[in-house]
Structures are given as C-alpha cells and as structure tokens.
C-alpha cells in the first residue's frame, strides 16, 4: 500500500468500533528517566519482527526487567514468557498476521492520523525533521514513523532537548498508540502487553514540552548528523560483542 491515495480527502484511519472499543488511557506509573528509557528500548526490541536477532535480544531484556516499576515489569515479563514458549516459525507467522495483515494494528504511527492520504507524506517528513533536530539520521529500511524506531529514539535521548523531541513525537501520536493498544487487546494479542508497558511510561504532553518540541523540529538539523548505525550496540540489550545490526535491522 503506497504513501499516497488518489484522493487527498480519503482516509483509511482504523477507528474504534463496537468490536474494537478505544480503551481508557492507562494512568502513568512513577518511573525514573532511566526506567523509562529501559522500558522504551525493551519495547522497541520486542515489537520488532521476531527473527533470531530479536529472540536473542529478548534474552538480554529478561536480565533488566527486574529494575522496572512493578506494573511495567509484570507486562514485559509475561510477554517474554510467551515469546520464549513459542516456536520461531509460529512466532513469525503470528507477527505477520497481527501487524502486516491488519490495518487497525499498524506499527506506523502517522497512519493513524493520516491513513494513506497525501497528508501522510508530510507526517513522515516531520518524523525525519524531529530525528535530525536531535542529531540523528534514519539509517534503515523502515519508515521513520515505525513505532520501534520512535521508541529506540526515546530510549537514547539524554539531553533535555532530545527528551523533549522524543516526548513530543510519542505524545503527538498518543492517540494512535492507544488505538493500537485497543486493537491488540481486542484480539487478546500478547503484544498488547508490550504496548501497555509503553503507555504506562508516557506522561501527558505538557504545553511547554509541545512548544519546545515544535520549535526544535522546525529550526532545522544541527551542523553535524549522527547516523543510527554509528551509535553502537543497543546496550544493555545487545548480546555481548554483537553489532547493533544483529539486534535491529
């Protein structure tokens, strides 16, 4: 399915229905910045296609979930149990059936706001501008609004401005994340547990964060750009000595 449709006024946004009601937002838990970053990196890895690299990274995730808030730890732990109990071929087939064949479970955040209309092209540009404003260049085959990529970005944010940009990206697409959570919950998908863990660490987007986020994104990229692949392994989740591309492609 392409980025643009013939009619810019047509949207294919998967909206809540009687069969897939929009759930009430989860109340955020008390989490330190380090716990939030760890949660987002864990979710970034676990929401990726469950190939050998992802399954290896999941074992590393298991080692760090104990330091997370109880509500987050319980959800990620339950998902890891499910992942470890599955056969690789069955896990891959389930992933495709969930995220590739169901529009309401799209992993691409701008799709929820723009569908397949011309507006989505501009939404994708905004994601690229946001990453560049923090010194990042997208280096991979996925579109810039891919949820695991946005979560990895949030996990790597260290400076105040980087954190604001990451919060602005996720906060401005919070409704889409909630629709995804609702759709996964309606399917009784174990992946709902991972999205719930993320939602538990997303505070409401305050006015100052939104203002600064928009200011940073529209001001253009800094002089030097840093590629994703140049930032090293996805610590602490990468297998010891493994290059980052073995964990994320």
Provide the β-strand percentage band: under 5%
**Apparent shape:** globular
Total number of helices? 11
Q: Cα distance, first to last residue? A: 21 Å
Average of the residue pLDDT scores:
77
Question: What is the SS-derived class?
Answer: mainly alpha
Main sheet summary: 2 strands, parallel
Summarize the structure in short.
By secondary structure, this protein is mainly alpha-helical. Helix content is 53%, strand content 2%.
Secondary structure elements and pairings:
Elements: H1 33-46, H2 52-62, H3 70-85, H4 88-100, H5 109-114, H6 118-133, E1 136-137, H7 147-156, H8 160-172, H9 174-186, H10 191-199, H11 207-218, E2 226-227
Parallel strand pairs: 1-2
Helix pairs in contact: 1-7, 1-10, 2-3, 3-10, 6-8, 6-11, 7-8, 8-11, 9-10
Descriptive labels:
249 residues; mainly alpha; two-stranded parallel ribbon; 11 helices; 2 strands; disordered N terminus; disordered C terminus
Describe the protein in words.
The chain is mainly alpha-helical and 249 residues long. Helix content is 53%, strand content 2%. Strands 1-2 form a two-stranded parallel sheet. α3 (70-85) packs antiparallel against α10, α6 (118-133) packs antiparallel against α8 and α6 (118-133) packs across α11. The longest helix has 16 residues, at 70-85.
């Amino acid at each position: 399915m392409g980025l643009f449709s013939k009619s810019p006024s047509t949207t294919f946004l998967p909206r809540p229905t009687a069969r897939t009601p929009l759930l009430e937002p989860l109340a955020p838990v008390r989490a330190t910045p380090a716990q939030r970053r760890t949660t987002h990196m864990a979710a970034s890895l676990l929401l990726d296609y469950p190939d050998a690299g992802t399954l290896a990274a999941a074992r590393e995730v298991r080692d760090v979930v104990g330091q997370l808030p109880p509500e987050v730890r319980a959800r990620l732990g339950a998902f890891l149990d499910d992942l470890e109990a599955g056969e690789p071929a069955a896990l891959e087939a389930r992933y495709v059936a969930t995220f590739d064949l169901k529009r309401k479970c799209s992993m691409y955040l701008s799709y929820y706001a723009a569908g397949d209309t011309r507006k989505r092209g501009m939404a994708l540009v905004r994601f690229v501008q946001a990453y560049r404003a923090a010194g990042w260049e997208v280096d991979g085959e996925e579109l810039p609004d891919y949820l695991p990529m946005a979560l990895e970005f949030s996990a790597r944010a260290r400076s105040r401005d980087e954190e604001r940009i990451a919060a602005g990206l996720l906060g401005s697409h919070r409704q889409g994340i909630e629709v995804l959570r609702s759709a996964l919950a309606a399917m009784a998908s174990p992946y709902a547990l991972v999205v719930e863990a993320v939602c538990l660490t997303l505070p409401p987007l305050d006015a100052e964060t939104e203002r600064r986020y928009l200011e940073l994104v529209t001001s253009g990229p800094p002089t030097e750009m840093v590629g994703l692949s140049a930032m090293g392994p996805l610590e602490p989740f990468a297998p010891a000595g493994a290059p980052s591309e073995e964990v994320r492609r």
